[in-house]
Amino acid sequence: MVISLILLFFICLSLSFVEEQLKDSEKRIIYIVLGFVMIMIAGMREVGSTPDSVSYEEMFYAKKGDLMVLLREPSFTFIVDTLHSLALGVNALFFVYAILSIPLHLTFFWKVSKLPFLTLTIYLSYYYMMHDLVQIRCAVASGLFLWAIYLYVEKKKVFALICILLGILFHYSAAAGLVMFMFSNRLPQWQRWVLYAIVPVGLVAYFTHFDVSMLIPDELGGLKLMKYRNMRDKGIEDDQQGWRLEINILIWMNFVLYFASIYYHDYLVKHMKYVTIAIKLQAVGFLFLFFAYSISKVLGNRMNDYFSVVTILLWTASYYAFRPQILSKILNNAISTVRFITSMLGYALSLLWL
Predict the structure, then answer these.
(1) Is the dihedral of CA 41, 42, 44, 45 positive or negative?
(2) Cis peptide before 324 (omega within 30 of 0)
(3) What does R_g of the chain's alpha carbons equal in angstroms?
(4) Is 272 within 8 Å of 261 (Cβ atoms)?
(5) pTM here?
(6) Which of these, 222, 195, 350, 164, lies nearest to 279 by C-alpha position?
(7) Residue 76: other Cβ atoms inside 10 A
(8) What is the pLDDT of residues 80-95, one digit of tens each?
(9) Phi and psi for 243 in degrees, rounded to 5?
């Protein structure tokens, strides 16, 4: 699988340099073939070859009375029950989620990007591994979230809401995506200063271990947050809590992207009109990272990952910030390569700890 991932990534990276020279029909055929390969890699992987795969095998074969069965989303229950009725194994589960998630993402990239292979390279550098090979339920939810962003900006808010609601059926955390309906697709100056302040203020809160749950009244959820805090203090927490911020180069790269996107907003939005909403949603992700982390490391990291899928749009838009264009592609792909190598190393270390 590792060799397949490396080949897939560098094929997409190479295609991104020549995609303007390809005919639309050629691009479409290659794009479809790459999507098929991505589905095959995700579906055929062995249990234990990626983080979370063992957990999914346990969930797949769990008895109906088990707690993990009661807590899983309706879509997962339906898919598992259907596969059981067909006498299929856990790899069929991987295939189903890949067939749902990957076309959602690839059709979205084709719709919003003038450079779909560049955008696909960005996706493969991190989110394909993190979602389609690990957090497979969140993979479908994030694909629906991206389509919700597109529909929201296109002023089709009812359909955007439907996408979010469908996402909740696949992963309960998708409910947080409803925050998008609080935002406008404009960025006045006062909002820029607020957005700028989130990261430095958040870093202070993170490194001083500020506990936001202490400020929330019990009747508004403070008691629930206190339970999370007690679990944290007793060391009862999910092992898959992610890398600490101090050593997570991927998040620090997103900080730089975030500040640059705000600073060059007026220019970038001329080339990609989804930049404004993407910046605001990334800010929400950072708020979870900084302020929820003290309550639950899993909650902070997972929610930041869910919202940070918008960086696919921001990294794609960053292509237009440099001239000549070949230099922009070299820089963007160099960053994607760093992300890809870091992600591969991160998952390799995760597997050693299983």
Answers:
(1) positive
(2) yes
(3) 20
(4) no
(5) 0.89
(6) 195
(7) 21
(8) 889 988 988 889 999 9
(9) -75, 145
